[in-house]
């Protein structure tokens, strides 16, 4: 499949996370008997299924949750794994996509906001390494921030990978020619990616413009206890 | 950071203490086998038992089959057990990652060696996928590098349901008859009604004389033994009782403290720790042999006789309709004669001072208010010796009068001074006024002169 010049296409690959380790983000949000358990972590989908049950048991025991949580946790993890596996056999198109990844997290007392560019084509990228370095460089003392950052990055990559898969499916469905399909992928892709392609054209330099420096800088805030409580209350209200 | 972590190996022991100093990484010259080092360690070599008692904060015990452990090196057994990091399958999951996981987990554990670290604690703080973290954690756990000598009591300390406080003193307390089988003594947290054997929930009624507990229903129905009446029971809230259970230890501390400090309840409360002074007083009074342990400072027979009299006299007042009065009477009885007197005097004088100030401002009959208050206080002191009280009362009155007069004089003085000030100001203003008048007139005359001069000049000019 030769691709025309404007939108460079790669041959479709099998779906996988565009990172070195094919790990998927798993998010849990379960409520049993008024007790709420929210969690987010990274999972290796090649672990045997027995791992799921073991992990759930340990979590329930360590966090002293009600035993009613156990089947729900197992079910949630397994359903997310199944979703991942359903995408796995399919094709995924990745163009030359450099996407902005945004971080906007609040972990215990730390609030971190950041934005940076990530190359989707780099299948050796490692969000964990990035998170570790970020925390070390910013001198974050709370050790729970690292995993949260890595998870956020992975989640966004996962979303985009899924989008690519669905766009591939729609491509195959639509019987239009390649040009129309081209139209498809760019329009589906985040508009930001295209803009960035313009940025890297011969006219501009690789060095970022000064006025954009602040936009791409990490912002780190340490909250006091009251602010944490206020944020939690706001979340609960909005959730309701 | 370059300090070695000295290890001492006892020849026959099964475990080795490792000094958990603040430095995290030992110097790189440390050989991977520790047995050759005999750096002196201030700690005693471990006992031959398989799990040594909970270690000091500075010493972490590690089983001897794990002595290969080193912060910087990876042993062959590690690569055997956790091949995923070492087979080069993925670029990022390499030995350095394994070292990062392993060292972070061990560091986390050694921060608090007496507490068992859970897998969830660890995986929340490490960046990576939970499967591999779990495998590293299990490996370290299995090899005793973490959670080895931790105490197993993770849960909250179990409540002191406590042995009976009174069991040691108790023979004279009659155990109730079989009709009301023993509900436990007051140290237990759950109360079962003696009559109907149901669990007391909200409040129960306790009779101290025969030490029986009745639930609210039985009490209302009058379901108690012969010889008891309604008044003998006191109401006990379950919630209060639950947190106010006095363990034996606390009672011992309390008695000790009373012996040392006598009537200083603040110090007693401090000594007992965890109880307010009111709690101590209340509990102390409830103890049957409290008086014996008191060792009253002026104990002679009159006093002790008087005290027992007082205790008996106490009960009628305890039923007094005014709870505050009852409380005050009770406390004064407890605290002793002179102290209550002194307290009453001090209270009266302060009150009268406060009243004076308000009265002089208002200018109304402060004396009336004072006398009313004093009468209240004096009726409060009924249980004390009345003669001394009257004398104190008279003294207080005369002091009061003097104070009032002083204050009146002072106030008149102040007002006089202020009036004088105002008068002076007036005078000054008048002077200033006069002066300005004079100046104005001068200016007027000068103006006139100037005008005349101008006229003269113009005439001259016209002529010439």
TrEMBL record, chain A:
Entry keyword annotation includes Phosphoprotein: no
One GO term (biological process): chromatin remodeling
Localization terms from the record: Nucleus
Protein biosynthesis in keyword set: no
Keywords: Nucleus, Transcription, Transcription regulation
InterPro entries hit by this protein: SNF5
Pfam families: SNF5
Main subcellular location of this protein, as a coarse class: nucleus
Origin: domain of life: Eukaryota
GO-annotated cellular components: nuclear chromosome
Family: Belongs to the SNF5 family.
PANTHER family the UniProt entry points to: SNF5
Protein name per its UniProtKB record: Bushy growth protein
TrEMBL record, chain B:
GO biological process, one term: chromatin organization
Biased composition (Low complexity): 167-183
Coiled-coil intervals: none
Compositionally biased residues, Polar residues: 12-49, 154-166, 377-386
One Pfam family in the UniProt entry: SWIRM-assoc_1
Compartments, record wording: Nucleus
Gene3D superfamilies, A to Z: Homeodomain-like (1.10.10.60), Winged helix-like DNA-binding domain superfamily/Winged helix DNA-binding domain (1.10.10.10)
Sequence ranges assigned to domain Myb-like in this UniProt record: 238-288
InterPro entries for this protein: Homeodomain-like_sf, Myb_dom, SANT/Myb, SANT_dom, SMARCC_C, SWIRM, WH-like_DNA-bd_sf
Record's keyword terms, sorted: Chromatin regulator, Developmental protein, DNA-binding, Nucleus, Transcription, Transcription regulation
GO MF, one annotated term: DNA binding
Limits of the SWIRM domain: 60-157
CDD domains the UniProt entry points to: SANT (cd00167)
UniProt-annotated stretches for the region Disordered: 1-56, 154-189, 363-386
UniProt keyword Nucleus present: yes
Record domain SANT: where: 241-292
Residue span(s) of domain HTH myb-type: 243-280
Cellular component terms per the entry's GO annotation: nucleus
Protein name: SWIRM domain-containing protein
Organism: Gossypium darwinii
